Amino acid sequence: LTANSSGLSIQQRMFDESGRPLANPMLNSSVNSRFIVVSEVVAEKDLGQSQILFQNPVPAGFQVDKIITPSLRNEAYGWLPEITYVDVIEARDDGVVAAQLDRITKGDVVMRIAYIFRATTPGEYLSVQSVAQDMYDASIFGITDGQPVTVRAAQ
Questions:
Q1: If you compute the radius of gyration of the chain from its CA atoms, what whole number of angstroms results?
Q2: Cβ distance 31 to 120 under 8 Å?
Q3: Over the stretch 20-50, which tens digit does the pLDDT of each residue have?
Q4: Which residues make beta-bridge pairs with 22?
Q5: Pairing mode, if any, of strands 29-30 and 147-152?
Q6: What DSSP string runs through 95-124?
Q7: Which of 76, 88, 111, 127 has an alpha carbon within 20 to 30 A of 55's alpha carbon?
């Protein structure tokens, strides 16, 4: 599954809980391992007043442990980049959802959010793509790559 964009791009970085960057922990995790995902949605063109919805489905074998709010970032994860105050952010059983209404120009970081995933179930899976889209203009979107995911039993 390949990335695609039309007006929005999504960059995702992953870290261990001490702040060390991880290449891709979902490729080879063990049960109960945790890592932080920082997702950033950037405008590739002027969008004017727009309402952007971001969805990152939880890959099979994982669950969302925690949303890192801007205040939690300041208290416990000061090494993370600044986190955006968004209108809505939720950890759901099936993933992380965030929404932001704003006047958006080319190059703006529409939102930068962070959350913790935890590996829960051993197996080999496929990570579903993250999507950002304008809620009222289907031609404005960004999609990440999908990738294989492996969760090993705890050792």
A1: 15
A2: yes
A3: 999 888 888 999 999 999 999 999 999 999 9
A4: 14
A5: parallel
A6: EEEEEEEEEE-TT-EEEEEEEEEEE-S-EE
A7: 76
Residue type, 116: I
For residues 74-100, b (16+ Cβ closer than 10 Å) or e, as one string? Answer: eeebeebeebbebeebebeeebbbbbb
Give the tens place of pLDDT for each residue, 77-120.
999 999 999 999 999 999 999 999 999 999 999 999 999 999 99
How does pLDDT run across 3-25, given as a tens digit for each residue? 999 999 999 999 999 999 998 88
Residue 90 φ/ψ, nearest 5 degrees = -140, 140
CB 83 within 8 A of CB 73: yes
- For residue 146, count CB atoms less than 10 angstroms from its CB and return exposed for 0-12, middle for 13-18, buried for 19 or more: middle
DSSP, res 28:
S
- Burial class of residue 20, CB neighbours in 10 A (0-12, 13-18, 19+): exposed
